[in-house]
Amino acid sequence: MAFFYILYSQKLGRYYIGSTDDIERRISEHNRGQTISTRNGVPWELKFRLEVESIDQAKQLEMKVKRWKSRKLIEQVIIDQRLRIEYSAPMYIGEVIGSSPIGSKIKNPVQKMGFLNF
Questions:
Q1: Which of 60, 66, 50, 58 is nearest to 14 (CA)?
Q2: Model confidence over 38-72: pLDDT tens digits?
Q3: What pTM value is reported for the model?
Q4: CATH number of domain containing 75
Q5: CA 46, CA 107: separation in Å to the nearest integer?
Q6: How many CB atoms lie within 10 A of CB 71?
Q7: Domain of residue 24, residue span
């Protein structure tokens, strides 16, 4: 079991995309300033997490979402609380975490999202 996750720093107004095999430990490390890339954004709030079968799958998702380089698409994942993934058939999975910091300023970015292929 592993996780793909999205954190949000209200202080920086930025998102952090990551993967881990222990979500509670990892978020705690981010919020204790033990991760150089997130140290300045403390506190970080978990906005989305997705449980997958292996750390390799979680890292693949992390890399694919980072390659989007699109705040709009990341925010749409948070609003919808799902990440569209293609296995043998398309499906939506995800877990509702808190509320979105961005309201309704996004207009249909899901149409551009497509599938994440493993």
A1: 66
A2: 999 999 999 999 999 999 999 999 999 999 899 99
A3: 0.73
A4: 3.40.1440
A5: 23
A6: 14
A7: 2-117
